[in-house]
Fold this sequence. Notes:
This protein has helices spanning 3-6, 45-52, 83-97, 122-134, 154-159, 193-201, 241-248, 261-270, 286-293, 305-311, and strands at 33-34, 38-42, 58-63, 98-108, 137-145, 168-175, 206-207, 213-214, 230-232, 276-279, 297-302. It is of the alpha/beta class. It has two domains: 31-189 and 227-315, Vaccinia Virus protein VP39 (Rossmann fold), CATH 3.40.50; 190-225, no CATH class.
Amino acid sequence: MSSLATGRPETRGARPKAVPTGVLPYPEPQPLITTRLGRVYCGDSAALIPSTLKPESVDLIMTSPPFGLVRKKSYGNEDADRYLKWFEQFAIQFARVLKPSGSLVIDIGGAWNRGTPTRSLYQYELLIMLCRDHGFYLAQEFFWWNPAKLPAPAEWVNVRRVRVKDAVDCIWWLSKTPFPKASNRRVLQPYSSSMLNLLESGYSPGLRPSGHDISRKFRRNNGGAIPPNLIALANTESNGSYQRYCKARGLPVHPARFPAAIPAFFIKMLTDPGYLVIDPFAGSCVTGYAAEVLGRRWICYELESRYVEGARIRFQDGNQLSIINRSEPYGIPPPNLSVNDSDAPLVEDGGTRRPSA
Length: 357
């Protein structure tokens, strides 16, 4: 029976019983969590992926790896300066297991250079490495704007006042072919009130000053608007069932979770039900939860066993988090130049010296 028929992720076939002399049999890894459609393995995904997945068996790799930050976090992020070398072991496996028609989606935040108000280029260098050295194409870049992010980094934003808050993550959508499977019809957004009025009242077709030729077909109601590559989604869950579950059991709450709507967006746009989705840096297994809800097979890999234990709540009946659906998108305000202190003096030294209290 096929793995699709059984609802199990596609894995290697049974290992031969005969083992050559002098060669130890490779132990089959055992998942810590198993559901109807997926499983969670605890350990280093660079080692687990080769022992659990066939070549070209994965439809979507949806992940948010540890960011290359200057300051170390509790979940074990890598130093920005060494990030590419560390990530390459995973890139090799991603290229091996991904189907030719599949996609690799990486949510990755930026970092600041140590001691100066300037940005590291590590996430862009990662993108170039994946395309130049491992054969991936950049299908499209997305940007996740989290309106709920606090002003940071505090030194440059709140103290020296020479930068604005950093509230956007890059999301790289990569593929092994220029034409991966995808459909934006799967992720249409509600029409704005102005577009609804236009559909009802009509408009004048013709050539616009921008050069765009607006035809009569523009008035066709397609059931929703094609979304932009800016995802506006606040990450505000602070007292949900996941946090309560972890705190009640003395488990650490993973500090770098993305909302379920992020992986759900790409899972829906890039895969069909029954396709295989994996997350090599699963954390609290938000990607696995989104895949389970959407009827996709999935595998999550997480290095820290305590985070896996906390993820169990996501797959218990009656305790699952909800995937956020908003009837209206967040509004993005234009630059406002008339607020108080708009003529405050410039910081002449660019923030070289820390201001006195």
